[in-house]
Amino acid sequence: TVDRLSDLEKLSVLGHGSSGTVYKVRHLRTSSLFALKVLRFGPNAADARRQAAREADILTRVDSPLVVLCHGVLEGSGDDHLCLVMEYMAGGSLHDVLRARRRLPEGLIAGVARRVLEGLRYLHGMGVVHRDIKPSNLLIGSHGEVKIADFGASRVVAAAAAVGPAAGGGDDACAGTCAYMSPERFDSEGFGDGGGFAGDVWALGVVLLECFVGRFPLVEAGERPDWATLIFVVCFGGPPAVPDAASPEFRSFLGRCLEKDWRKRGTVGELLSHPFVAKCCSTEGLVDDTFYI
Ligand code: ATP
Ligand code: MG
């Protein structure tokens, strides 16, 4: 574990999110690379801060090659931020990959599906519902291995931002956090009475469809996925349209993920034995620069 910020040398900025900034850093003594996520809190956010610390505590207990590991939780100077020392993922996020390649072939999409389902099986087995599965939270290692990042933490920090004085507009906050939400999560009831696990499966379905069509698939090209549009499409619309070019296996798989009634939706266990992911499923091509479609 890394226990002091002063042991780390800042190398570059890896990205910005709603909760803060992620830096590439080097541990001075061992020369190991890490990603340092700096979560910033507004003033008067003590509760949110404690809640984030508890989430960070869950992060440090997670231990699986399917999940981006957290090697330490560090307090910054002052109590307005918290730093998470994370495993460095050299391939960036699936969001970065999609920006570069736009679309992925079905073979790679099946590989992503399999890895994320295995990661969800692990997390759900620990009683952890991710609640924020989206391309920027699926990170890629140097050999193309896909891992789940940011479970829980981003939700808590987003809630903190919404009550703080520096809160952004409701619709802006939504654009980043609710685009992959399942129909039952738009309900005032919350996550349905199944504990919310099915919501992670819906989000995975949206992500995989996005990999196939090359853009966020639930709204028209160029349209903003704001709260009102999403309620209309996700809650009141028909099942999301899948292009004719998709294979029958992929179509059937997406149909099970994007089933609107969470009680009838495919479970992680069922989907892991679906023919779409049961065949090959390597994700090495995600970091192969010569491979573009
Ligand atoms: P949100 O705040 O809604 O979660 P986000 O996922 O884009 O959005 P962050 O989780 O702060 O925000 O991450 C910002 C970016 O930093 C990611 O999109 C990714 O490109 C990069 N990143 C995050 N964690 C790592 C990591 N462990 N290794 C390499 N890059 C990372
Ligand atoms: Mg993230």
UniProtKB/TrEMBL annotation:
<keyword id="KW-0723">Serine/threonine-protein kinase</keyword>
<dbReference type="GO" id="GO:0005524">
    <property type="term" value="F:ATP binding"/>
</dbReference>
<feature type="domain" description="Protein kinase">
    <location>
        <begin position="8"/>
        <end position="277"/>
    </location>
</feature>
<keyword id="KW-0808">Transferase</keyword>
<keyword id="KW-0418">Kinase</keyword>
<dbReference type="InterPro" id="IPR008271">
    <property type="entry name" value="Ser/Thr_kinase_AS"/>
</dbReference>
<dbReference type="InterPro" id="IPR053235">
    <property type="entry name" value="Ser_Thr_kinase"/>
</dbReference>
<feature type="binding site">
    <location>
        <position position="37"/>
    </location>
    <ligand>
        <name>ATP</name>
    </ligand>
</feature>
<protein>
    <submittedName>
        <fullName>Mitogen-activated protein kinase kinase 10</fullName>
    </submittedName>
</protein>
<comment type="similarity">
    <text>Belongs to the protein kinase superfamily.</text>
</comment>
<dbReference type="Pfam" id="PF00069">
    <property type="entry name" value="Pkinase"/>
</dbReference>
<dbReference type="InterPro" id="IPR000719">
    <property type="entry name" value="Prot_kinase_dom"/>
</dbReference>
<dbReference type="GO" id="GO:0004674">
    <property type="term" value="F:protein serine/threonine kinase activity"/>
</dbReference>
<keyword id="KW-0547">Nucleotide-binding</keyword>
<dbReference type="GO" id="GO:0005737">
    <property type="term" value="C:cytoplasm"/>
</dbReference>
<dbReference type="InterPro" id="IPR017441">
    <property type="entry name" value="Protein_kinase_ATP_BS"/>
</dbReference>
<dbReference type="InterPro" id="IPR011009">
    <property type="entry name" value="Kinase-like_dom_sf"/>
</dbReference>
<keyword id="KW-0067">ATP-binding</keyword>
